[in-house]
Design goal:
It is a single chain. This protein is mainly β. Among the domains are: 102 residues, no CATH class; 120 residues, Jelly Rolls. It has three helices and 55 strands. The longest helix has 9 residues. The chain is rod-shaped and about 125 Å long. It starts with a strand and ends with a strand.
């Protein structure tokens, strides 16, 4: 004998609830016997629910023998089960259960309450203990209250819902705060693969407060210690203290397409010996109150906190929390730091990246600084390689967009940056390098565009390099200076810095005076650095008696300059010289007036060689300014040649 179940529309059979059964009365619970099958005996509601499937034809046919029927919400409107008529047909109403997937445990089948009024912890644990895939349906309100820890002990088990906005786990003040976490992963050896959590939400109920100490100190939403290759996909966590606590080796784990909100750490990593991927995930406060958001924006709220992680990948994420990423020196049984890459992420408004150790490659990211004036990146240890990034500030950053300040001599601090763009507002540093530890602090900046505020940079410098720091600054381009009086590159010490091939767009530089170790070459020199020397020479310039000649010229860029010069007068053969003059002037062919000038009478001895200094001329240039070295000689018969030298030293801006 065979019996067939058919949907009225011919659509695939979904989960159904038993409404009526012939000769059995009203709705039955899971332990009641609801029918008999010819040749196989009685079967229960649970057995019936375990069979109904999703046959493409809209029918499910079963033959003689013991059968398992899956699903909930089966409304029987006619026919019999286990009847004597061959090919008996039952007409059913489609429901919303799990279909004919016999390896799925629906938490509602274990007593979970979707109204959120009673504790469903035991039902969730019972479903998970089956080892099957666990389904959290968005039935009714779709809210399940959980008051205690749920243990996950089956490798690779899938726990899923109907979406991160539909299947919701509620954690409130009734939760056991001494628990290790809401979901705690504790697999048997070899502890892989971890569970797969998909498409549901955990919502922690917090007081409406702006004071961190008044928050409920809930345990993490997910806790994993030395459990590898877990997956979180389409998960939303709101108002947690920690969303994912991944301790020791969580290698191979991935967090994808999630929405996370925590007051302490969104994702905590330390001790991982393999890759962890975090992609397309939002770290934001969309469900918090205005008071709670005050706490969320504090520096203590961290997006990703990572100690040791061997190969971290963060891709396509959005960060709007207090501190976006914090890379520190990890401790524990697997101590160390993080190496990995961060690509295509947006760091919005707050504290950006903090590094005390590790090796990170950062590319194609955007930083917007418009909320707190603390800088996009603070590098106190480790190596950061940046390329193709933009840092845009809409408020003044008194400490700089990037701050390098080693905290210990034992951990080098290194920045390698290329093809990045900086847009600053107000009186702001772009990069500030400070080193009081005696450790290693070096920045290599190539091919970047730096746009300081053209009218507001006054007391700070774009690139400020302190003592015990090294800078290589090559092929960079500055935006216009406007009325700003700040400095492009300021070097505090005569160290082996390299400044070559840059376009300074009329910004001045400031170098130590004098300097011998700095390499400065092929720059646009618009402005020039303090201590910069310019010079010009001339040899064997033919003189005409009693005529002032321009024998050399230097063009000064805007700033304060001291200009000096001298002339050697060399008569030919029997020429007799009676007077010589040398001077520096801002007016061509004019000796005296505004300028430095000396004129002397000399003994009229035939062929006598004479030298005369022109003195020192202070020039405050506001535009490009020519300074002329002039020479004049009074001589009789024969001829006279002049050899001249002039030099200009920048002394101010």
């Amino acid at each position: 004998m065979t019996t067939t179940i058919i949907t009225p529309s011919g659509a695939p059979v979904e989960g159904v609830r038993i409404v009526d059964m012939p000769d059995l009365g009203a709705v039955t619970d899971d332990t009641s016997f609801v029918g008999e099958h010819a040749g196989s005996g009685r079967f229960s509601a649970t057995a019936l629910r375990s069979y109904v499937g999703t046959s493409p034809s809209g029918t499910v046919t079963f033959t003689d023998g013991v059968h398992t029927v899956a699903g909930s919400n089966l409304a029987v409107t006619g026919g019999t089960i286990g009847g004597t008529s061959p090919n008996a047909t039952l007409t059913i109403v489609p429901g919303t259960g799990t279909g004919g997937m016999t390896d799925i445990a629906n938490v509602m089948d274990f007593g979970a309450d979707p109204t959120g009024l009673t504790d469903s912890k035991a039902a969730f644990q019972a479903a998970i203990n089956t080892g099957k895939t666990v389904y959290i349906p968005a039935r009714g309100a779709g809210i399940y209250r959980i008051n205690g820890q749920i243990n996950c002990t089956t490798p690779g088990q899938i726990i899923f819902g109907d979406g991160k906005g539909r299947s919701i786990i509620k954690v409130d003040a009734a939760f056991n705060l001494s628990a290790t976490g809401v979901f705690v992963i504790n697999l048997p050896p070899p502890k892989v693969p971890g569970p797969q959590f998909r498409d549901f939400q955990i919502n922690f109920i917090q007081p409406d407060t702006a004071i961190r100490a008044n928050l409920v100190a809930y345990p993490p939403a997910f806790y994993s210690e030395d459990e590898a290759r877990g997956t979180w996909h389409g998960i939303k966590v709101n108002a947690a203290q920690i969303c994912m606590d991944l301790r020791q080796n969580a290698g191979g784990s991935s967090i994808v397409d999630c929405e996370l909100c925590a007051f302490d750490k969104h994702v905590a990593i330390d001790g991982s010996l393999d890759s962890i991927t975090i992609a397309d995930t939002r770290f934001e406060n969309d469900l918090l109150t205005a008071n709670q958001t005050v706490i969320y924006y504090e520096a203590a709220t961290t997006g990703i906190s990572t100690g040791r992680c061997d190969d971290l990948h963060v891709n396509g994420c959005l960060f709007i929390c207090g501190t976006h990423i914090n890379s520190f020196v990890g401790t524990g049984s697997n101590p160390g730091t993080t190496f990995g890459e961060i690509t295509g992420c947006d760091f919005d408004s707050l504290l950006g990246i903090r590094m005390a150790g590790g090796f990170l490659n950062l590319s194609g990211c955007f930083f917007s600084e418009g909320f707190v004036a603390t800088g996009a990146i603070v590098l106190s240890g480790g190596t950061l390689n940046m390329s193709g990034c933009t840092i845009n500030s809409t408020i003044p950053l008194p400490n700089g967009s990037i701050i390098m300040a080693p905290v210990t001599a034992s951990i080098p601090c290194f920045l390698n940056m290329s093809a990045c763009t900086f847009n600053t507002t107000g009186n702001s540093f772009t990069l500030q390098m400070l080193n009081t530890t005696g450790g290693y602090c070096q920045a290599i900046i190539t091919g970047c565009t730096i746009n300081p505020d053209p009218n507001a940079l006054t007391t700070r410098n774009c690139i400020q390099v302190g003592a015990n720091c090294l800078l290589t600054f090559t092929g960079n381009r500055f935006g216009g200076r406007g009325s700003s009086s700040g400095i492009a590159v300021a070097l505090a010490a005569d160290a082996p810095h390299i400044v070559t091939g840059n376009y300074f767009a009329n910004w001045a530089n400031s170098f130590p005076v004098p300097y011998n170790n700095i390499v400065y070459a092929s720059n646009s020199d618009n402005g020039g650095e303090v201590g910069r020397w310019l010079n010009a020479t001339v040899n064997a310039y033919g003189m005409t008696s009693t005529t002032a000649h321009i024998i050399a010229t230097i063009t000064l860029t805007p700033g304060d300059w001291d200009v000096s010069g001298g002339v050697d007068f060399s008569p030919s053969g029997p020429t007799v010289t009676s007077a010589i003059s040398a001077g520096l002037s801002l007016t061509s062919s004019f000796l005296g007036g505004r300028g430095a000038y000396q004129s002397i009478l000399v003994n009229p001895v035939a062929g006598q060689y004479h030298s005369l200094t022109a003195g020192v001329l202070r020039v405050k240039a506001t535009v490009a300014t020519n300074v002329f070295l002039l020479a004049q000689s009074n001589f009789a018969s024969g001829g006279q040649l002049a050899n001249g030298f002039m030099a200009a030293r920048r002394v101010g801006h």
